[in-house]
Amino acid sequence: MIPNRVNNQKGFSLLEILIAFCILAISLGILLKIFSAGVNTAIVSEDYTAAVQIAESLMAKTGLESALLPGQDSGTENEKYDWQVTISPYMFNPGNIDETSLTVAIFKVKVVVSWDASKAKSRQIELTTIKLVNKTL
Predict the structure, then answer these.
(1) How many C-beta neighbours within 10 Å does residue 81 have?
(2) Residue 115 · residue 123 · CB < 8 Å
(3) Residue 13 pLDDT > 90
(4) What DSSP assignment string belongs to the chain?
(5) What is the pLDDT of residues 94-109, one digit of tens each?
(6) Residue 67: predicted pLDDT
(7) What is the C-alpha to C-alpha distance for residues 3 and 34, in angstroms, rounded to an integer?
(8) What global pTM score does this model have?
(9) Which site from 93, 129, 135, 136 is most exposed, i.e. has the minimal number of CB atoms within 10 Å?
(10) Other C-beta atoms within 10 Å of 107: how many?
């Protein structure tokens, strides 16, 4: 009498293992791409935050550390951020106001901070405000 041979193999076939590895590889590729995009976004966000802080600092000290006079000034901060401050007289005429009768002079202050100038995607921010200074009599 020949014993009954039952094929009771338990496990995965080679095809099933290859399909599982393909799914795993595709999933890991997508996850790594998402992660690297998040890191790049964080780096760009950090650059913008630093540039805004530099621009706000320059704007705050304009007119405080030196006289508020028309002109331009420029420089570099942290060997990465190039900045330019432009001060110009602000011209306005709301109605029939005579500007010579005003006791203050009005100046427009524009601060531009740029970085990554050597790369194809140069980035910059621009802040503009109006400042008043007492006229000397």
Answers:
(1) 22
(2) yes
(3) no
(4) -PPPP-----S--HHHHHHHHHHHHHHHHHHHHHHHHHHHHHHHHHHHHHHHHHHHHHHHHTTTSS---SEEEEEEETTTEEEEEEEEEPP---TT--GGG-SEEEEEEEEEEEE-TTSSS-EEEEEEEEEEEEPP-
(5) 666 666 677 888 899 9
(6) 81
(7) 57
(8) 0.70
(9) 136
(10) 19
